[in-house]
Design a protein that fits this description.
It is built from four helices and three strands; from the N terminus they run αβαββαα. With 82 residues, it is α+β, with helices and mostly antiparallel strands. The longest helix is centred in the middle third of the chain and has 7 residues, at 26-32.
Amino acid sequence: MTVLESIRVGDIMNPEIEVIPEAMPLRGILRFIPASRHTTFPVVDPAGKLSGIVSLQDFREAAYEDALQDLVIAKDLATTKW
């Protein structure tokens, strides 16, 4: 067994990771972000599976469009190809 095989994901994963539901509207994200210390967030589907990653960079432009705050959701902004 190698060293990496003996390490469980739960042992090294940061338990303070904050996720964003993929259906969260931009307005909700804008309220959520200032209370966080993070700049990148996993986006999860209703089952809790990773569906993308959203960063401050991803929604910076949309954040200033008031008309989009209830139309755009986290899934629209997330990076889904990695």
